[in-house]
């Protein structure tokens, strides 16, 4: 009796991985076998003992069976091997034994991927929020490393051939005992209102005489841009979303503090729902398109959400197209969007009223 086995003993398979199923025939050693497979979502299964699927997707989930024939030997169909493919890409998790390296000592970092096995790990380090990440160790079978240098660390997992990578873990900041002070950045609010601004404050606890440098990044791994240098004021006003941090400096030559921890600021912009055509009346059976327009959102890649009557699956794009509209589509439509460090609130309601066809007295 043949059996279908997965080449790797992975308990969970993710979309995008490459996997191999094998048809193994007990007592079939030394024979030349011809193989047949039954599988979901394919009209041309292989005729060899291996069933390789590149960039597996959810549609490959289901039961796989095989059988073989050789001269005057014939097997029955194997028991079903049920393949389940997860739709979401996993994210690695980085944990630290401590956030501070003691003088002359080290700290242990651990990288893991919840609920699955077979991973090797890449480790990255940055000196500061403004520097690029450097690969410090690659393809490590051990998920634990020891570090004796401060910095921002993150990791990712990889497995298979070709290698399938997880999402990068969140960064973990590891400090080292030192006498150098650290600046502290605080924000009046984490969201800039539409057309408004937010005040940031930078300080160095327990000391005076500092001037401040201010920095902004577009994303977690992009380079930092200096937006203010040597300001004697400890506050600034900003009207743009992003990741901000500051540092203090005083004396000649300048002695600088450690950079502050980064603070994420989002900017709110306005969304509005509009009908593609300026029709004052909509009739049943027509096809219409509603658009979510974001003021000041040009050049950005937006993710959209909609609320609408009579549906459990609104679109995720900027357009809401309804074919053969009916009276049941009447009601309030709202949208909102998010992009990097920009976000909108829900738009004002657009009220859609659908009338019966012109040649009908009732619907």
UniProtKB/TrEMBL annotation:
Gene3D superfamilies: Immunoglobulins. Residues 2-84, 90-156, 181-264, 285-355 form the Ig-like domain. One of its GO terms (molecular function) is transmembrane signaling receptor activity. Pfam families: Ig_2 (PF13895), Ig_3 (PF13927). Transmembrane segments: none annotated. It comes from the Eukaryota. SMART domains: IG, IGc2. Keywords: Disulfide bond, Signal. GO terms for cellular component: external side of plasma membrane. GO terms for biological process: cell surface receptor signaling pathway; immune response. Coiled coil: none annotated. This is Ig-like domain-containing protein.
